[in-house]
Design brief:
Order of helices and strands: EHHHEHEHEEEEHH
Helix content: 25-40%
Number of strands: 7
Strand order of the largest sheet: 4-3-2-1-5-6-7
Largest sheet: 7 strands, mixed
Strand content: 15-25%
Oligomer: single chain
CATH architecture: Alpha-Beta Barrel
Distance between the termini: 26 Å
Radius of gyration: 15 Å
Number of domains: 1
Structural class: alpha/beta
Length: 171
């Protein structure tokens, strides 16, 4: 998903529990020989069989701590792109998943999720480091994502960024 660097992400919260490993994002039983669209239709089915049916393009996954632990399976991020996930918010992430998300252009935000309910409209400002939940007049803060990370997200991920900036060098 391509977005402006200073864009604000808005969407409905779709809740998932804590300690979700990437095998629950996209079960290994669907990986051999299946395309990403097929895998996405089975995302999180072991946790919540109706999740994909309720999910709408632009929704935000709001999950408990350690979202994406266990493996470096990039298909988990690819399946979320197919679903139309605009961002994932959780108190913490598996480090490999966090990097895979950024490298593949999916916004991930480490933030307190207390008080966010299923279906709440949330607004995330990556530059300001804020998440607002209008229904509860709640606001949360998080360390703003560095400008370099926001540039990767705006480009759609690492590869599109490097393709758009072939002469880019690490400072």
């Amino acid at each position: 998903m391509r977005r402006d660097m200073n864009s604000i992400i808005k969407g409905r919260a779709r809740l998932l529990p804590a300690e979700i490993n990437t095998d629950l994002h996209c079960s290994a039983k669907y990986l051999p020989g299946k395309d990403t669209a097929y895998i996405a239709q089975h995302a999180f089915e072991q946790l919540d069989p109706g999740f994909v049916g309720r999910f709408k393009t632009g929704d935000v996954i709001v999950a408990g701590r350690n979202f994406g632990i266990n493996s470096s399976r990039e298909q988990a991020v690819h399946a979320m792109h197919v679903l139309g996930v605009s961002a994932v918010v959780a108190p913490s992430f598996g480090r490999q998943f966090f990097r895979n998300a950024i490298n593949n252009g999916l916004a991930v935000v480490e933030c307190d999720i207390a008080g966010v309910a299923e279906g709440d409209e949330i607004e995330i400002d990556l530059s300001a480091g804020t998440m607002a939940v209008a229904a509860h007049a709640a606001a949360r803060s998080f360390p703003p994502l560095p400008a370099e990370i926001q540039s990767l997200l705006a480009a759609g991920g690492l590869i599109p960024f490097l393709q758009a900036h072939p002469d880019w060098k690490i400072a």
